[in-house]
Amino acid sequence: MSANNTWEKGIEGTFRIHKNLIKGTVPILLPEGTRVVSAESCGISAWTKTAKVSAILRDGNPKRYFLKCIVGKGARAVVNGEFQSANDIDAAYPGLVPKAIG
Fold this sequence. Notes:
By secondary structure, the protein is an alpha+beta fold. The chain folds into two domains: 3-69, no CATH class; 71-102. It is built from two helices and three strands. The chain has helices at 19-22, 75-92; strands spanning 35-41, 49-56, 62-69. Strands 1-2-3 form a three-stranded antiparallel beta sheet, with no helix packed on it. A hairpin with a 5-residue loop joins strand 2 (49-56) and strand 3. The radius of gyration is 14 Å and the shape is globular. The two termini are 27 Å apart.
């Protein structure tokens, strides 16, 4: 497969979105009918690449997501730990951190 076929086209911004994040082998976490319109690199992280993703929901309302990508040995454990931590923080202090959906 050519590298040009790996990335989703038609999404504005500085952060390329892999096709599998929109449709494919990765479980689709965005609500059905969501259209991603832009993805911008966001923040600094030693272990991950992060982006602010702007989307339009099926009903036409805008929605923003925070995307965190990580690869390599131990990646799943890091992501699972961050997911659990984000949920615990949200339960204790709603709205303080982005809602974890992954």
